[in-house]
Amino acid sequence: MEGTIEKRFDVPVEFRWYEVIVEHDPTSRSHKIFVDSQMIRDHQEAISDAILDDFSIGAREGPRKNMELDIERNRQNVYEYKLKVDGVPLEDYIREHSKRYKAFEVSIGTGARSKLIFDKESQIQDSDGEKNGAFYFRGRLIGTPKPEFDGCDVVWNLIDGNFSFQLRGVVDSRGVQTFKLFVNGVEVEPFQKNNDLNDHKNLRRTSLSKLEVFHQKGEGEHSCNNIALGEGNQRKNLKVTIDTDDDGEYMFILSIDGLPLGDYITEYKNRYTTWTVEKLGSKSKLTLDEEKDVFYFKRQEIPTKKTQPSFEECVWEGKFKEEYKFRVVKTLRGMGQFATTLFVNGAENRLKFIPRKG
What we know:
Elements: E1 5-13, E2 16-25, E3 30-35, E4 38-43, E5 51-57, E6 65-73, E7 79-85, E8 88-89, H1 90-97, E9 101-109, E10 112-119, E11 134-137, E12 140-143, E13 148-150, E14 153-160, E15 163-171, E16 177-183, E17 186-188, E18 203-208, E19 211-216, E20 223-229, E21 236-244, E22 250-256, E23 259-260, H2 261-271, E24 272-279, E25 282-289, E26 294-297, E27 300-302, E28 304-310, E29 313-320, E30 324-332, E31 338-344, E32 347-349
Antiparallel strand pairs: 1-2, 2-3, 3-4, 5-6, 6-7, 7-8, 9-10, 10-11, 11-12, 13-14, 14-15, 15-16, 16-17, 18-19, 20-21, 21-22, 22-23, 24-25, 25-26, 26-27, 28-29, 29-30, 30-31, 31-32
Pfam families: FAIM1
GO biological process, one term: negative regulation of apoptotic process
InterPro entries: FAIM1 (IPR010695), FAIM1_dom_sf (IPR038513)
């Protein structure tokens, strides 16, 4: 088996569902674990094909759940992925969870989706001190309406913004109750979890220009993983996730090699300083790599000389052809802070490049 196997599965903790992604490379025996796009594990070079890892999720909703991931290769040379929650196999855990919580996926426009969760056994009391169940939408409590009766059906009605919800507890001839949700008068399907851990065909690979993008099949595709940036030993893996917040607004979440973009840029700025150099309306970037003491201009490394006139000052000088002469002066200021100034052809350049994070 070649390449990285990526498995996504959904895990509920009370009224919230978490997306957990496992990236497993059988060749290097390494694996990474992401929870809601944040990398929480990065293990390299396991001593055998069998991998056992544990982690926890669910801090926001009360007691944390202990997760146990087991990766093994069976006799058919196929990897099997087993997940336990508090010692219970995932499917059994979800089956028990669904006895109390009912989840539906609601379209909130322009392809975005959010979950409506009904907690049948909620301990939240309404204005009359009664417990009739609680509804959560976009991750927040939206109401505890009193149930009404329509024949043998139990009906809950509530409104949140532009959404009118009606949940019907329908009792069949055998006395079994099932739940149907109507949003603005239209029936919607229950939330379909993505937990077929051993189906290696649930990912497809698409060529997009020079980028290799891995993403999930089906409607509402909201993430692209392993987008290669750079070449050789400078290559970085970009992951883009598109989600919605509690107000239905889009969120674009980027991470580089598992680090959130903001943290990655902070680390980057500790080593590199970049300016925008403008000449006759044309803009190019000059970058100083303080670890290697070299300039990069127009994607080329250029000859650079470093001097240190005093303990409090460092100077880097270089030139690009005969058009540009660069001089960077780094000076120690008060409180241990440094100030870095660029001079281009003898004139100070104040156009320091500031990366955008969103």
